[in-house]
Amino acid sequence: MSTAIDTGRSTAAGPKKAKLSDRARGERSLGWKLAGPAFLVMLFVTLYPIVYAIYLSLFNYRLTDPTGRRFVFLGNYVTALGDPLFWQAFVTTFIIVIVTLIFELILGMGIAMVMNKIVIPRRTLRTVVLIPYSIITVVSAFSWLYAAKFDTGFFNHWLNFFTFGAWDLNYDWFGGRWSSLLIICLSEIWKTTPFMSLLLLAGLAQVDSAQEEAAKVDGATWWQRLTKVILPNMKAALMVAVLFRTLDAVRIYDNPYVMTGGANKTLTLSMLVGTETIDRVEIGMGSALAVILFLIVLIIAFIFVKLFKVDLTGGRN
Amino acid sequence: MESNISDKTKWGLAAVSIPIMIWTIIPILWIVATSLKSDAALADPSKNMFGNFWPKSPSLDNYRLILTGGASELFNPALLNSIIICLVATFIAVLLATFCAYAISRLDFPGKRLILTTALAVSFFPVIAMVTPLFNLWRQIGLFDTKIGLIIPYLSLTVPLSIWTLSAFFQQIPWEMEQAAQVDGATSWQAFRKVIAPLAAPGVFTTAIIAFFTAWNDFVFAVNLTSSNNARTVPAALAFFTGASQFTQPTGAICAAAVIVTIPVVILVLLFQRRIVAGLTSGAVKG
């Protein structure tokens, strides 16, 4: 395996590297010949659309009125950022991100700790926990939707049973913003906690058990061992898991689309881009919103990488 | 971790694992239960057990409806589209990523970190941001509502993931064995075929499964870049089942379709659980 120090930023060999051996030069050229196609495909399928989106976002352009297309510079951005609907979608999205992240972290950590130490049924638990990951998000959304609906569902029946009849059998979960968001979050949490727990389990495996043992001998409580020994030692894995999930949750689309279609103020940013583009064929405005969402993701990633010093490619090359 | 785990902890953990497994299983059981309900039983608690959960008299009518009956025109093409589109997107991605990951793990060239960072950045790209420009472009060049029109954006999901997962797998391969085989008199083709290919194959296969899942799961592109059975995949078709009839919600049919597309994937996961876990977490911890 290569152990050479790789600064990696520039693709072309600098002048100071001119005296490379033929073999090294051959390796470089072969390296890019092999890796190049995949790299180009990635650039083509993402960089090109986003550049095109930036261009389109500068126009007032509606598909139903192609001749009315005119250059408005940042006009779409000003309109979008001044629109209460945008901020409502922004708030909805981040409520979902924060709520799901908190619960996924707590549940994921709990499941990871159980998976880490469990003896019976070790194999079965690890397999069962992976099932939600393999379910299509849309299927998960339908499952939770039908479970919560007052006519076809079982939620109200079970809640009614466990509260000895106090719960209203006809409670409409999708009648209000907060109860709708609750079900959306539940589906999201159910679907993604396994992935979270696997990432955290991989982090847990790196914690030195001798340290934990030593803390135990010194009389540290379970909580002290968790917060003072385990969590600090797996900080890297923890931050990567949080970043992965945050960036994934910001683009939430499937669950609210299937469950509410954005009704009752449950429209998310991704859905806003979709409706603006496809339903209202406002290509210019849709593109501006797409660029704004892209920037939000960039800012979050930047904050994590710079402020929390998350090393994402750590350990590679 | 601790080898001398006490009996109390052992059974305590086993007890804790039960609610975890129930929480995981219930939504799956629920969708199976709903798919087995007749229309009459859907909203009638007296025809179901356990608080409107499991039907007292399960029926396979919903499966008949989507496989051979009225909804089959909607479901069968979607299933075929999903399989074709996801297989092609997976195949291209794994092929490209195999070369790329091989170069990253074996050769010394500048820009490795750039490629890995790009792969990571692309996999967290908000996919909806690609929909607007692609929607506009595809309509102009005739790729809207075609299979190719979905395969191309799916590459943005499958290629980075494959590069990331495969380069982690490839870094664990003892490449020296190739030279060792050649020293022992094998030709380079023999060394590759008999030594390297068997070592690399499990990683490539696992990567293909994970990439396929990701494409299979996509809804954003499928729902926005298609408009008919021409290219619409299963997740998008499921959402349009709802719109098909306004007065009777095809709840049972959707659930039956959901079960059909879920079962093969769950079986894959059960069979290759260990490898998939290794592949999924390779991106996050040192590979």
TrEMBL record, chain A:
Primary location class: membrane
Biased composition (Polar residues): 1-10
Subcellular location: Cell membrane
Keywords: Cell membrane, Membrane, Transmembrane, Transmembrane helix, Transport
Region Disordered, annotated ranges: 1-20
Segments passing through the bilayer: 38-59, 93-115, 127-147, 288-308
A GO cellular component annotation in the UniProt record: plasma membrane
GO annotation terms (biological process): transmembrane transport
Membrane topology: Multi-pass membrane protein
Domain ABC transmembrane type-1: 90-304
Protein family: Belongs to the binding-protein-dependent transport system permease family.
Protein name, per record: Sugar ABC transporter permease
Organism: Metallococcus carri
